[in-house]
Write a structure and sequence with these properties.
D-Amino Acid Oxidase, Chain A, domain 2, alpha/beta, binds flavin-adenine dinucleotide, seven-stranded mixed sheet, single chain, 36% helix, 20 strands, 370 residues, FAD/NAD(P)-binding domain
């Protein structure tokens, strides 16, 4: 039996962040991940500057080994509608490749890594958690993403209407494909579905192109097929881009969130269902939850009853919960009215900038968690 101060199940951005924070405070941390790193993760790979700040990432060091694509503008439209270019004339976001980003963060965390091992059996014994009969610690962090076994244990019957199903492909373009790609690296394209039930994107990071589509219903596959045809027809992307777009699901943060703490356990990132509801951005909430969870664990000072860890749930709510007045407004407005408003916003240059980009996608009004 290997003992540690903390076991983290999942080494994605949420898991590596909590592991790093605990390691920096001197804790002995084991991270168990079913994948061997570097590993792929379905993701457009878009992050905001707040993520860089919270991670205290040195952009120069990072880009020495990895792609860090600055973004200074966006092209937005309703599928088939007139595109609007919003130019910020400064860096407002970055593009990363998850293959590199997650590997970089996990290595930097400095934890003991157990990769290529599926954590499945979770037992409570003598006030500690034992994972698969092999690893034992007084605190267990569930950071295993949407299918996290720790999250399933805490929320066995959880159901949520706010599940995003998304499909995506990222590939290195050949020189001929790069020459035909009309997506500028510093200006990703966002294409909102006509019913506003989701959106597609085309996002170039150097010579890598990432295209995909996510929706809040069961029709992602058919919309993704139609989107691929639209993209090729529009001439925005090379015509011979891969047609197989693998998929993944994850939860948006809603007013009825999951249980995120129990005796000796906390959930972070997608395991806790934290992605921003408007944009589907999940990396920032994953990282912020990692920081908040580590702070709560350290403040609990070895006493890990549910009530000792409750400050984490409260801090998460304060950071991510939609204000009650906005929830009430949303609930009051019938769906067709919301869709009509959305269409109006997307066709108006100033509102696209203020609402869609600044508020929903960039969270410009919310400073980084440091
Ligand atoms: C198509 C798509 C596009 C997206 N685009 C963006 C984007 O551009 N920007 C953005 O901010 N967010 C995006 N997201 C959301 C974002 O990818 C997630 O919110 C984010 O990865 C959450 O990080 P995490 O660390 O919680 O989970 P993950 O990154 O999913 O990491 C979980 C880890 O746990 C491991 N694991 C799972 N089960 C087990 C187990 N039983 N035992 C051991 N290990 C296990 C996995 O191997 C994985 O390494 C996108 C999502 C999708 C599906």
């Amino acid at each position: 039996m290997t003992t540690a101060d903390a076991i983290v199940v999942g080494g994605g951005p949420a898991g590596s962040t909590v592991a790093r924070q605990l390691r920096e405070a001197g804790a002995d941390v084991v991270v168990i991940d079913r994948a061997r790193f570097p590993r792929d993760k379905r993701c457009a790979g878009w992050i905001t500057p707040q993520v860089i700040d919270t991670l205290a990432l040195d952009p120069d060091d990072y880009r020495r080994r990895c792609v860090l694509q600055p973004i200074t503008a966006f092209r937005t439209c309703r599928l088939g509608g007139r595109p609007i270019d919003t130019d910020y004339a400064r860096v407002v976001s970055y593009g990363i490749r998850r293959w590199e980003f997650d590997d970089y963060l996990l290595a930097r965390a400095g934890a003991r890594l157990v990769t290529g091992r599926d954590a499945s059996r979770l037992e409570r014994a003598g006030g500690a958690w034992v994972v698969d009969g092999e690893w034992r610690a007084p605190i267990l962090v569930g950071a295993g993403g949407h299918f996290c076994p720790v999250a399933r244990r805490l929320n066995p019957r959880a159901r949520s209407a706010a599940v995003v199903a998304a499909q995506e492909v990222e590939f290195a373009m050949t020189p001929a494909q790069a020459a035909r790609c009309r997506v500028a690296p510093e200006r990703p394209h966002l294409y909102f579905c006509a019913d506003l039930g989701g959106y597609g994107w085309a996002f170039r990071k150097g010579d890598y192109l990432n295209v995909g589509l996510g929706r809040l219903d069961r029709h992602t596959a058919s919309h993704a097929r139609a989107f691929l045809a639209f993209l090729v027809e529009s001439g925005d992307v090379p015509p011979d881009l891969p047609s197989r777009w693998p998929g993944h699901a994850y939860l948006l943060h809603t007013s009825a969130p999951r249980e995120v703490v129990a005796d000796g356990v906390v959930l972070v990132g997608d395991a806790a269902g934290l992605a921003y509801p408007e944009s589907g951005e999940g990396i920032r909430p994953a990282i912020e939850s990692g920081v908040l969870a580590a702070r709560a664990i350290l403040a609990a000072n070895g006493r890990y009853r549910r009530e000792d860890l409750a400050p984490y749930a409260a801090a998460l709510g304060a950071r991510l919960d939609t204000p009650p007045w906005r929830r009430a407004l949303g609930a009051l407005m019938p769906r067709p009215a919301r869709a009509a408003l959305g269409r109006y916003v997307l066709s108006t240059r100033a509102l696209t900038r203020r609402i869609v980009l600044d508020a929903w996608f960039l969270h410009a009004g919310q400073p980084a968690l440091v």
